[in-house]
UniProtKB/TrEMBL annotation:
Protein name in UniProt: Nuclease SbcCD subunit C
Quaternary structure, from the entry: Heterodimer of SbcC and SbcD.
Source lineage: Bacteria, Bacillati, Actinomycetota, Actinomycetes, Mycobacteriales
Residue ranges occupied by any Rad50/SbcC-type AAA domain in the UniProt entry: 73-257
GO terms under biological process: double-strand break repair
Family from the record: Belongs to the SMC family. SbcC subfamily.
InterPro entries: P-loop_NTPase, Rad50/SbcC_AAA
Pfam family, one: AAA_23
Domain of life: Bacteria
GO molecular function terms attached to this record: ATP hydrolysis activity
Location of the region described as Disordered in the Swiss-Prot/TrEMBL record: 42-64, 250-280
């Protein structure tokens, strides 16, 4: 069926199962459908406010389909290992592209840039301890400008065939990693968020890229983490999300019912301990559902209402609060200090100074109006500029003294106000009808006395302290007396009545949610029962493809891949991968080597990444062969060749083993080489034959004028040896591939040949011990070149332009088998 195919609509498949189940109610079906959509839809459906959920339309859609795209190029600057702007150009069509580069060359930076541009994150960063990866994302040599641009070409049979699109990431100067602006732009249109391409869900369910860390991490995670990973690959995270929503709703709605049931159990135990006839009646009413809450309430709360009010009044008195004596001591102390300061400063001299200040101010005003002249007060002195200067200084001193005096007066006013209002929050307590409380009148008398302030202000502090002690003592006595009277008046039924009332309240609240709780339980039960069916149906084609891919990659492995199942749920969920070792059943993961685990991860990853429902016509693998032996590499190339029929397959590799296997088998492929030069300058070029690269490296060393001659003598012969062995490797593997010999068999034989001459013999004669003396003597450039590879590596050699020419000719002779 369509829904079970890799990439089919999970929601449509759920509706199909609902329609096929004649026992499921309409309400259950609607709740399951709402849970698939989100929290708001589920809440509205439970509240009876939502419309009937609509089945997904799998034939038409109001939004354009996600763009089906090939990768055209990756352009990066200031990011990870790439400093100045560098571009990786790719063939945007079906086929194989291998990008080789030594560790640290910057090749993985292109892969990480692609991942970050598409997802806004990186598996490597998210799964490493600490913040090392996130804090070192800017290039150390040239971190500005930091930018990424990924160009895509649309699939020709897409309605928008011929269209190109770009996903970009820009960082402002000094911005942090996640402060980037991510955008997308279809050619001829304006820039929009990356989500406008419609790839968000596909990046989860059809993730088109996987790194070496992710290959290992997926299967090294816990069984529950692997379960979640496979669940996402199958698109069943939608089911898991719906399950969680229903489970949360069940937990929320079952809370009141659980509390009510527990309270009922405790209540019935309490009723057993009472001899009151009302207890037996209430126990009878709570024996079985439905409980008659009105009858229970009438039996429980229909009497002693006046007594309950009296007890409430007594409990209020028992909780009476009055000001603490220690606070009264603080207020009284402040008042005494304010009185003392005021008395000390308020003498006759202060009053005279104030009056004199007023007179001087008036005299200054007069001088300002009439100028110099005879003093109008004493009629003997003279008012002039000298007098004015002296008068201003005296007035300044007088004003300062006046301000000080006013501050003392304000402090005194505040202190007195605090003392006068100290008992303002306490009120006298009215008598309680029918209850004798001797301490009540004593308290009211103490409070009245406390509010009667003495005539003399100086006596007020002491009065405040004494009154506070009296009021506190009287309040304490009243509280004790009221608590005792309340205990005496409250009969044995009152606490039982309160317990019954509390349960009735809980039961009422629970009944409001019972119906919705039953509906949620039914929906959750159906979803979990059918989740197994969904998993099995959607997992089956993936398992079949994974077994097929594993079969291609398992060369020389004694592990057979069996079933893959997802078991349990919630905290008990786990993924189980079965297998056999030499025919004996065993857990596949527990017996696999690192290389086998990587091969298995690829077998699980590739089917979902290459399903027809994926909009990505490319698949990117970063260093997948790092832990593989030659047999696995050969099988891996078989898988790549098959994938390349329907996908643009891009592989990043840290060594030349995969390109060598491709050359040996004459597989059509784009081979690129990434090198990192000074100051993080990354260069991408065609991946020349390894032997030719070593010849070029040797030539560069020999003619480097800045390089010490001793270093040249030691380093150049080693490059000669690598060039000759690379040429022999190419010749040998190419001939063996044409003869139909398995790659890993050729590799094993190659590794047994330990010297340069034995490897040349293996390439030319098919036998590592073959005689090549005649071949070396046949042309003059061969013997000296092979000699440099032997003794020159150990002793060093002075080489020149002729030596390089001889090397180039010898390499050509070996490759072309002359």
């Amino acid at each position: 069926m369509d829904g079970a195919e890799l990439g089919g609509s999970v929601e449509a498949e759920v509706w199909e199962l609902l329609d096929a189940d004649e026992t499921v109610s309409e309400e259950t079906a609607y709740l399951v459908a709402a849970a698939l959509h989100g929290d708001d839809d589920l809440t509205e459906q439970l509240g009876g406010q939502a419309p009937v959920p609509q089945r997904p339309d799998t034939t038409t859609t109001d939004t354009p389909a996600p763009l089906r795209a090939f990768l055209r190029s990756i352009t990066v600057s200031g990011f990870r290992g790439i400093g100045p702007r560098a571009t990786l150009e790719l063939n945007p069509y079906y086929g194989i592209t291998v990008i080789s580069g030594r560790n640290g060359s910057g090749k993985s930076s292109f892969a990480e840039a692609l991942e970050y541009a598409l997802t806004g994150s990186s598996y490597r960063w998210d799964n490493k301890k600490g913040q090392h990866w996130e804090t070192s994302w800017r290039n150390l040599h040239m971190g500005e400008p930091a930018a990424i641009a990924i160009d895509f070409a649309m699939e020709p049979d897409d309605a928008r065939g011929g269209t190109t699109a770009t996903v970009g990431v820009d960082w402002a100067t000094g911005a942090e990693l996640h402060g980037a602006r991510r955008w997308s732009q279809i050619k001829g249109q304006k820039r929009e968020p990356v989500t406008a391409l419609g790839w968000d869900q596909a990046l989860e369910t059809h993730r088109p890229l996987m790194s070496y860390d992710e290959l290992g991490g997926r299967l090294e995670d816990s069984p529950s983490a692997l379960y979640d990973s496979l669940n996402r690959l199958l698109g069943l995270d939608l089911i898991a999300d719906a399950d969680n929503r229903l489970k949360d709703a069940e937990k929320q709605l079952s809370g009141p019912r659980k509390a009510a049931n527990e309270a009922r159990t405790q209540l019935r135990k309490t009723l057993d301990s009472s001899s009151d006839p009302r207890a037996a009646q209430v126990k009878k009413l709570t024996a079985r559902t439905p409980y008659d809450l009105e009858a229970i309430t009438a039996t429980t709360l229909g009497t002693n209402t006046a007594q309950a009010a009296t007890i409430a009044q007594l409990r209020s008195l028992a909780a009476l609060i009055v000001p603490e004596p220690v606070k009264a001591t603080e207020v009284a102390g402040e008042l005494r200090a304010a009185i003392d300061d005021h008395v000390a400063g308020a003498d006759a001299a202060m009053k005279v100074m104030t009056a004199r200040a007023a007179l001087l101010r008036e005299a200054l005003h007069l001088h300002a109006d009439i100028g110099d002249g005879v003093c109008p007060v004493c009629e003997t002195g003279t008012i002039d500029a000298a007098w004015r200067t002296a008068a201003k200084e005296r007035l300044k001193e007088a004003d300062a003294s006046t301000i000080k005096y006013q501050a003392m007066a304000q402090r005194l006013a505040r202190a007195r106000s605090a003392a006068d209002g100290f008992f303002g929050t306490v009120t006298s307590q009215p008598p309680i009808e029918g209850v004798d409380l001797p301490a009540l009148s004593a308290f009211n008398d103490a409070l009245a006395s406390a509010r009667s302030a003495p005539d003399s202000l100086s006596d007020l502090p002491t009065h405040l302290e004494v009154a506070a002690l009296d009021v506190a003592e009287a309040a304490s006595a009243l509280r004790a007396e009221a608590a005792q009277r309340a205990a005496e008046l409250e009969d044995a039924w009152a606490p039982i009545a309160r317990t019954i009332a509390a349960w009735v309240e809980l039961e009422t609240a629970a009944r409001n949610d019972d119906d919705r709780l039953d509906r949620v339980k039914a929906a959750l039960k159906w979803l979990r029962a059918n989740a197994e069916t969904l998993r099995d149906r959607r997992l089956a084609p993936m398992v079949g493809q994974a077994q097929h891919i594993w079969g291609r990659m398992r060369h020389e492995s004694n592990v057979d891949l069996g079933s893959i199942t997802l078991e349990g749920s919630a905290t008990r969920r786990r993924a189980v991968i079965d297998g056999t070792v030499d025919g004996v059943p065993a857990g596949a993961l527990s017996v696999m080597s690192q290389g086998e685990l990587h091969a298995l991860a690829l077998a699980l990853f590739i089917p979902r990444a290459t399903t027809a429902a994926s909009p990505f016509r490319f698949i990117v693998l970063d260093d997948p062969i790092q832990a593989m032996d030659p047999a696995k590499i050969s099988g891996f190339l078989d898988v790549l060749i098959e994938l390349a029929k329907t996908r643009q397959v891009i592989v990043f590799s840290h060594d030349d083993r995969l390109p060598a296997a491709i050359r040996a088998r004459s597989v059509p492929a784009q081979l690129l080489d990434v090198t990192r030069e000074h100051q993080s300058v990354v260069v991408v070029k065609e991946n020349d034959l390894p032997a030719e690269r070593y010849v070029a490296d040797a030539e560069a060393v020999i003619f480097d004028e800045d390089l010490d001659d001793l270093i040249k003598r030691k380093a150049a012969p080693g490059l000669f040896r690598m060039a000759i062995e690379a040429a022999a490797h190419q010749r040998f593997f190419s001939d063996r591939a044409k003869a139909g010999v398995a790659y890993h068999e050729s590799d094993a034989e190659w590794e047994k040949a330990m010297t340069t001459q034995s490897r040349v013999a293996l390439a030319l004669t098919g036998d590592a011990s073959g005689d090549v003396s005649g071949w070396k003597a046949y042309r003059p450039h061969r013997f000296p070149t092979i000699a440099i590879c032997a003794s020159g590596v150990h002793k060093g050699a002075a080489l020149d332009r002729n030596s390089v020419a001889d090397l180039r000719k010898t390499v050509r002779d070996i490759v072309e088998n002359r």
